[in-house]
Write a structure and sequence with these properties.
Chain A has eight helices and ten strands. By secondary structure, chain A is α/β, with parallel strands linked by helices. Chain A has a six-stranded mixed sheet, sandwiched between helices. Chain A has a four-stranded antiparallel sheet with strand order 2-1-4-5, with helices on one face. In chain A, a hairpin with a 4-residue loop joins strand 1 and strand 2 (41-54). Chain A is globular. Chain A starts with 22 loop residues before the first strand and ends with a helix. Chain B is an all-alpha fold. In chain B, helix 10 packs antiparallel against helix 11. The longest helix of chain B has 38 residues, at 185-222. Classes of the chains: A alpha/beta, B mainly alpha. Chains A and B meet through strand 6, helix 4 and helix 5 of A and helix 1, helix 8 and helix 9 of B.
Amino acid sequence: MVHVGSHETDRPAKKHANTAGSTLIELDEVSAGYDNQRERTRLIALRDISLRVTQGEFLAIVGPSGCGKTTLINMIAGFVKPISGVVKVRGLEVDGPGADRAMVFQDYALLPWRTVERNVEFAMENRRGHVPKPERRRRIAGALRLVGLTGFEKSYPHELSGGMRQRVGIARALVGEPEILLMDEPFGAVDAMTREAMQAELEKIIAETRQTVVFITHSIDEAITLGDRIVVVSNRPGTIREIIDIDLPRPRFDERNDIKRSARFGEIRGHLWKLLSDEALGAKWGSVARQEGGTS
Amino acid sequence: MTHVAPARQSTQGTAQVETITVGKYAPFKGVALTIVNLALFFLLWELIARAELINALFFPRASEMFSAMYLGFADGTILPEIWHSLSNFLIGLAISIVIGIPVGLLMGASRVADLILSPYVWAMASLPRVALIPLLILIMGFDNSMQLTIIVLSAVFPIMVNCMAGVKTVDPSLLRAGRVFGTSRVQTYSKIIFPFTLPFVISGVNQGIARGLVGMLIGELLGGGGSGLGFLLDRAGDQFDAPMLYAVLILLAVMSVGLIQSMRWLEQRAAPWRDTQRM
């Protein structure tokens, strides 16, 4: 079990980003849990998570289902308050959602009675000091061009495929120009073909907009192909098992040179697979199996 | 970015729409079918009545029914009663909507309001309306306000219960999206909860119409107010005036179908994004 407290401090900035890597998101000894009022118990979802995310970094979080990945991203989003420890963004303690963070949801969470452009506009119309109308139009057009949905402005979500709906979700998250993009298994509900294409486009989009991304997935391949670093979260209560630097060159989606065939990719994949299967076994058969898995 | 080409193809271009040719009379096909269908129905009715298979006292000819209807309209016995019933019904429905929607929304949104109100709402929603008639007559006499009250009591609870159910089914991830993108409390209601609930509200009003019509009739039949279609029905029965009885029944059917169908039309308009399940 690798402890991470010092591991990720002053790590180099994202390879293809120009901005210097200053710490943007900071979690210090954070624990989270859910109270069960009736049984007077508290389920600990995450324990002692310490993590720094540098500006412009793409951080992927993997772990078995139910390990608290979503709780982690919800704390950064400001939905869930930690029971101990602090979550900071730009040095300020997170106290609820803010315009500096936007989220892409696994189930898209689009307003079904709004057209594509009105759904994207939703991100700019609620907070005070909102964007003036012509500026909004310009930004909506820009965001839709970025995700390849030009021409579908007047469509309703139910007329689009799953992949296209999630493009709307991404455009909505990007249009407010947030510093941080939180993605909670964004491609979990789309088919495998679309998924690959969307990953490639996401890499391209992020290279252009230079957001800092926290990306939850349970796909090892997705984490390796997208992430600058991968955080492996262990099972209930979730703790950080290991943090892995992905030193593969970018862009990772290149037809002539399939990154998935490289030896380094296979190496990281094997390592991750072993870590995660230990966790999965641990979840199934309790701590004994995990110990055996760890020593073998 | 050659790798992403397949996905681009399907999404980058503008949406394609092609024109198709449809027969000139195709839109009227349904209407024509209904007219033929109804004509056959009345023809069959006329034939069975003429064959005198059933006692003419209970089963007049269709032609007699139509002539009773025509005479009733001509000598002004029917129209004021339709007007009385319809205006009473519409006022009652309006009151039910004004009370039912806000209370229903409140019950859906606030757990405390739900806990306090739900025993009464469910008791009133389940109690057969007729049971209240003696009490209402005791309180209000044979006045028109008694008929109005029974309409409101019939229509308001389905509206309330549907609104409440609608609010409770609001997709939690839409609420999360609202928080991420900074909706205030009022905006959460106006931009997420109410639009989501709208189809439920309309189907509640729909049920309210059906129940309200029953309320209207029992009020007029048992309330002894001396006016309305229910009164006409009652009097025709007392006078063994079968053609008039059937005429009023047909008029009631037309009125109910008209109201319910127009609401159903509205229901589909309100939420084209939702698969409306057909009954």
